[in-house]
Amino acid sequence: MIKEVNKVKINYELYGNKQEKTIVLLHGWGQNIQMMKPLGDSLSKEYQILVIDLPGHGNSEEPKEVWNLYNYVEAVHTLITSLKIKQPVLVGHSFGGKISLLYASKYEVKKLIILAAPFKKEIQKLSLKTRCLKALKKVPGLNKLENWAKQHMGSTDYRNASPIMRQILVNHVNLDITEEIKKITVPTLLIWGTMDEAVPLARAYELESMIPNAGVVEYEGCTHYAYLERLNQTVSVIRQFMREE
C-alpha cells in the first residue's frame, strides 16, 4: 500500500491480528520491507504488523530535500497516526533502530525493541555496503537475499546514492542522539550479536545504562544481522517481552 506522508509517497504493509497491539517494523539503511518481514510474518497471528519502506528505500519515494532523522521520525509518526494506531511497539534494526530511539524519546510507545542500532558516530574501516554483504553471507538461510542485496543495497550506499540520499546518510552517521535517549522511559529490549562489526556490543550496554527499564540479550557469535541469524530465538524473545507487564 502507498500513502503520501509529508509530501513523500511511502510504501507499507499492514496485516495480522487487528484486535491486538501493533508492532511497527523499521529496517536498516539500504534495505527494505523484505528484511523485516520474517519477523512480522512470525508474529502476525498474535499482533497487528506494520512494516514500512523508509523514504528513499524499497518502493518508497526519496525525500525531495535533505532530511535528518527527525524528519524520518515525523514521517513515521504521521503514517502511524493516519492509520489510527495508538501506543505502537517499535522494532528497529540499525538505521531503523536509531529512528525508533528518537521516536520513543518524543512520542508515546508501548515498548521498544532495538536490533543493533547506532546512536552516535561509529568509526568504520569498510563501506556500509561491504559490511552488510559480509554479514549477510554469514546468515544461515539468507543466501537468497545475498543476490538481492548485491543489486539493491548498493543503490543507497554512499558512492552510488543520489545526492539527497548521500547527504541523508552523512547526517545519519554523524548524528549523536545520546541526550534524546535519556528521555526514554518505556520497557526496552536490546538484541545484539557479539560479533557485530558495524555497531559493537558495547553500544548495547551504553543504551542499557541510559534507559531505566532496559535489558540486553546477547547472541553469541552473531553479526549485525543477529535477529535474522537466530530468527526463531528472536521471535521467542519478543513474544516473552510482549507478554511482560
Keywords:
Rossmann fold; 39% helix; 18% strand; 245 residues; globular; eight-stranded mixed beta sheet
Summarize the structure.
By secondary structure, the protein is an alpha/beta fold.
How is the main sheet built? 8 strands, mixed
- Kindly state the percentage of residues in helix: 25-40%
Categorize the overall geometry.
globular
The H-and-E topology, N to C, reads as EEEHEHEHEHHHHEHEHH
Instruction: State the separation between the terminal residues, measured CA to CA.
Output: 33 Å
Mind telling me which CATH architecture this is? Answer: 3-Layer(aba) Sandwich
Widest β-sheet, arrangement of strands: 1-2-4-3-5-6-7-8
Please write the CATH class name.
Alpha Beta
Q: What would you give as the CATH superfamily? A: Alpha/Beta hydrolase fold, catalytic domain
Number of strands: 8
- The computed structural class is alpha/beta
Uncertain runs with pLDDT below 50, 5 residues or more? 148-156
Strand content: 15-25%
Spatial extent as radius of gyration: 16 Å
Secondary structure tally, helices: 10
CATH-defined fold name: Rossmann fold
Mean of all residue-level pLDDT scores: 89
Number of domains: 1
